[in-house]
Amino acid sequence: MPVYLEQLLPGDHQARLVWHFVQQLDLSELYAKIRSVAGGPGRDAIDPRLLLALWLYATLDGVGSARELERLCDQHNAYQWLCGGVSVNHHTLSDFRTGLGDALEKYLVHSVAVLRERGLVDLNRVAQDGMRVRASAGSPSFRRRATLERYVQEAQEQVARLRKEMDEDPAANHRQQQAKARAARERLERVQEALQQLPLVEASKKKQRKDATQARVSTTDPEARVMKMPNGGFNPAFNVQFATDTKSQVIVGVDVTNQGSDQGLLEPMVEQITEQHGTRPKEALVDGGFASLDDIEKLSTGPTPCTVFMPPPEPRSNQRQANQARADDSPAVAAWRERMATPEGKAIYKERASTAECVNAQARNRGLQRFLVRGLIKVRCIALWYALAHNFSRLSALRILTLPPPK
Question: Which of 37, 251, 339, 374 is 20 to 30 Å from 332 by CA-CA measure?
Fold first, then answer.
């Protein structure tokens, strides 16, 4: 059906804003990876700018499936306009989404730099919060060491048997045999990776003074861990961490771990922000349990201290108040306890809920309910997509979509 694409969308449609935003990003790193060049073999490659715009708009639209995005590119006006007549398939879309790696992080840092140049982000006060997101693995996929070792032996025997069948029967359907052999090899790799992850889980069990023989790892996603979810249940999940500038509600730091607790995750985030943006946050707002006393001591001292605002835990003894300094407290820890008892400290800490928790809620509303990919590397890519989509929405709300060139 002949269609004039420019008439599909109004002039102020969000898809046009997404395309305008993506056009100004430096994608030279992505273009350098393209191996299909003029005069050489292979089909023309799809422009990375098109794929980036599609996934950014899809993330804003709450679409997280490559197959669903492929369908929308055929049937939805906004996605058809972004495609501009170029056909895409779910394999290409899926590979692109999880294969950007550090490039997505650079685009996220660039979006923050734009707002910093305008004076809208100063990184003086940063709020951090984590959320558990379901992994693409079921609870029955978790197995103990004895079962995993048996699975490895069975998978090795299956791979050897299929290889022998292919060698003995050259006239057979090689396409089917190769598909079976590939599936067997992939299963063997997953089970072997699960065995490699098992010592980490056993060490964690020992640290918690639990029976290490009960440690289990998923054969579907070996890097996923069973975590306590917001509904009170336990499911395989990953722990997504977003750090937000309280002044602008812009995400300035992203991390994903398979650690069920938030304990000890503040200092790595502060170091990440310092390295990526060239400045250290002056104040960090986190929920109780994020930082240990050693973390508070380390962050609060040094040439560029970061003041921690975190509610102190309730003491085990009724003879001491939570904000009362202990005899063995360092000056930095004693100052933290005293700071959290003041009206000023309580007023500053209230900003955490209105920023970090708000950002997490918006990510949930955009579909960050369950990961459809496996492994920490791919899961982190998905978290970066949501952070980039969030920052785009903030740029759009502030009507800042003309980006200066990257430095």
Answer: 251
